[in-house]
Automatic annotation (TrEMBL):
<dbReference type="InterPro" id="IPR004176">
    <property type="entry name" value="Clp_R_N"/>
</dbReference>
<protein>
    <recommendedName>
        <fullName>Clp R domain-containing protein</fullName>
    </recommendedName>
</protein>
<feature type="domain" description="Clp R">
    <location>
        <begin position="4"/>
        <end position="116"/>
    </location>
</feature>
<dbReference type="InterPro" id="IPR036628">
    <property type="entry name" value="Clp_N_dom_sf"/>
</dbReference>
<dbReference type="Pfam" id="PF02861">
    <property type="entry name" value="Clp_N"/>
</dbReference>
<keyword id="KW-0677">Repeat</keyword>
Amino acid sequence: MHPFGRFSDGAKEALTLAQEEAERARHTYIGTEHLLLGVVRVGDGRAATVLNGMCVDIDRVRRMIDPLLGRNAPQKREQGIIPTSRVKVVVELSFEEARRRGDGEVGTPSTSCSVG
C-alpha cells in the first residue's frame, strides 16, 4: 500500500491544499509553511480547531508567511512540486504518532479527544 493510502480524507485534503498553496506562491517545493496553510484551510479537523482556538486562521497565517516567502518567477518543473525534507519528516512523525495511538490511518479527525 502506498504510504498516503494510510491518510484520512481530511489529511489527503490538507496535502492537496498544501500543494495548491505552493503553486499559488509559484514555488517548486511543498514546505512546512504550505502544509500549515493546507491544515488551516481544511477547517474542520482537530489541528485546524486547535489552531483556530489560538486565533490562528488562514488570513493571519498568510499575512505572516507571505512576506517571508515571496513569490518566485514561474519555473518549468520536470518532476512537479516536491516536498522538502522537513515535510517528509512531518509525514513520518505523523505515521509514528498514528502507530503510537494504535490508529490505522493518519488524519485530522473532527472528533474530540482527551489530551494528556
